[in-house]
Amino acid sequence: MKILRIILGDQLNINHSWFKAINDDVTYLMMEINSEMTYVKHHIQKIIGFINAMRSFRNELREIGHNIHYIEISDPNNEHSFFENIKQELLKNNYSKLEWQEPDEYRLDQQFQVITDQLNIETEVFSSEHFISDRKSVGRFFKEKKTWRMEEFYRAIRKNNSILMENDKPIGGKWNFDHDNRKKWDSKIKLPVRIKFHHDVSKIFSEIDDKKISFIGDIDVNNFNWPKNRQESLLLLEHFLNECLSDFGNFQDSMSEDNKYLFHSLISFSLNTKMLHPMEVVRLAEKKLHPDLTNLNSVEGFIRQIIGWREYIRGIYWAKMPDYVASNYFAFTNKLPSFFWNAQTDMNCLKKSIQQSLENAYAHHIQRLMILGNFMLLNETNPKYVHEWFLGIYIDAIEWVELPNVIGMSQYADGGLLATKPYVSSGAYINKMGDYCQSCKYNVKTKYDDDSCPFNSLYWNFFINNPNLLNNNPRMGIVKMQIQKMSDQDKKLITNKVVQLKNNINQL
Predict the structure, then answer these.
(1) According to the model, what pLDDT value does residue 284 have?
(2) How does residue 500 score in pLDDT terms, banded at 50, 70 and 90?
(3) How many Å apart are CA 474 and CA 255, to the nearest integer?
(4) Structural domains in the chain plus CATH codes
(5) Which residues of 201-223 are buried (b: 16+ CB within 10 A; e: fewer)?
(6) 330-345 confidence digits (pLDDT tens)
(7) 135 with 42: CB under 8 angstroms?
(8) How far is residue 222's CA from residue 217's CA, in Å, rounded to a whole number?
(9) Looking only at Cα atoms, what is the longest distance across the chain?
């Protein structure tokens, strides 16, 4: 029986059972599809990162001995449609069966269901063999529960897989060491020298340019610095575990104007393309736990990102799609200010975070949540525009992981399904956890003066306009008390300041 197997651009798992044996009756089809690069405007490094990794994976499979039909973006026979390319290949080679791995994005899952309906051929869908839990596990886990909380699911995964466990108890006596992971950045701390790969991707860039693919962001085509295969991904992981993990926890929530990576792992692109497996990452991190547990906060904090947020977020996505993408709890309608596309703002924290994103297709999670997402929510931005911006700009942004993080965690657009409170702050938090405010033209200490930090008035105005968020939520008690103590005059000055800011939003 001749079999055609489809490999998508985020299914680059060389350890998948498909590849254990060479079979001359099996051909693998990989495609560079124009529409995959344009359904939102993507960062050029994201587009090239995926193509570079896909072509490397193709070469690796060929070297092993597998039959690969690979359709590049510049191929004149490329129909730039999954359906049309698959149909063309089936007609040419008389296959008896079509197989693919479960897509992780809802829209691709729907596309492949349509393909199944339209093609007169036997089909079979396989697991991607990547995740620790299955698509529906979160939905099943919380089926009879009124509230969904990541911590419960996280603990269950740790128990079921004996991760950081000792005699059915969490090592160190606690499940969560998040309280220890909130140190402000100290510029005296020595940072590790990061690995650089220096890939020449000028040929790929030329092909994209020839196709007139529109993109955002910058790239050095002679020194592209994202991993293209499992070997390079393992080097990144090894470097993080040896050089960064011990300090990761302490400064996990820190921000620095001059140090974009701090102690973060930089492996999310490798994980989300499946060049690394989450469980291997977890097990290698476990091995770095000191016998005296002095680095437990770092090891647990990192593992929680992998098996807590990553697995849980995926489960939210598959439990709530397709309606989740349209969530807009506050019915916000504003557009993104123009500076989100060019970093031309005097708000230093925003300027540096956006600039970094445009230059590197990267920002760490606190920059994404507490600067970028924070401002977008306080600006009452339509979550659809927020989702599209985040999905396009970051190299690790695949919808299954990006969408719930943005809709639920960052924008509270699901009304509290994912987050227990809106993740917003005034300038005080940004000043506490980072050093942006020191060289900013705005005054982080005042609320409504001409030079006051916009975050301050926007923050208080958000809760003045949404008092329901403060009722019956123990996490919001202090905010509620502070607003109750505000004079009517102060509230009026705040709301007037916000009107002024929003009328001049593109000039901040």
Answers:
(1) 97
(2) very high
(3) 27
(4) 3-126 (3.40.50.620), 137-318 (1.25.40.80), 338-507 (1.10.579.10)
(5) beebbebbeeeebebbbebeeee
(6) 999 999 999 999 999 9
(7) no
(8) 16
(9) 79
Do the beta carbons of residue 275 and residue 12 sit within 8 Å?
Answer: yes
Four-point Cα dihedral 41, 324, 306, 304, nearest 10: 130
**Distance between terminal CA atoms of the chain?**
64
Q: Tokens 């991707």, residue?
A: 201
User: How many CA atoms lie within 13 Å of 198's alpha carbon, on the beta-carbon side?
Assistant: 3
SS3 category, 150 = helix
Which residues, other chains included, contact 472 with Cβ-Cβ below 8 Å and sequence gap of 6+?
none
Per-residue H/E/C for 243-291 = HHHHHHCCCCCCCCCCCCCCCCCCCHHHHHCCCCCHHHHHHHHHCCCCC
pTM of the predicted model over 0.85: yes
CB-CB contact of 426 with 463 (8 Å):
no
Alpha carbon separation from 192 to 124, 140, 242, 259 (Å, rounded): 46, 42, 10, 11
Q: Which residues pair with 99 in a beta bridge?
A: 5, 124
DSSP characters over 299-322: HHHHHIIIIIIIHHHHHHHHHHTT
Question: DSSP characters for 457-475?
Answer: HHHHHHHHH-GGGGTT-GG
**pLDDT digit string (tens) for 253-263?**
999 988 999 99
- Residue 376's alpha-carbon distances to 160, 314, 357, 406, in angstroms, are 38, 23, 15, 10
